[in-house]
Amino acid sequence: MTRVLNQVSEGTGRVLESTMNMEQTAQTVLAGAMEASAGTEQQLAALEEITASSLSLANIAEDLQSLVVKFKV
Fold first, then answer.
1. Maximum separation of any 2 CA atoms in the chain, in Å
2. Integer angstrom CA distances of residue 28 from 15, 32, 73
3. Each residue of 11-26: pLDDT tens digit?
4. CA–CA separation, 35 vs 73, rounded Å?
């Protein structure tokens, strides 16, 4: 009986160890996913800034073109 209980106890210990390893792996994956998400958000913000700058430059170019037309002889 004691031998069976020892085997059950050892098996339970291995299951617990495996579960703890799975938790650590899940935490590592979660940290990586959060880091990737933060990187994506930064890239999106940079793209939005580039888009706004491009639109501003396009407006300035149109204004300059309008001024140049006025000075043509």
1. 109
2. 20, 6, 69
3. 999 999 999 999 999 9
4. 59
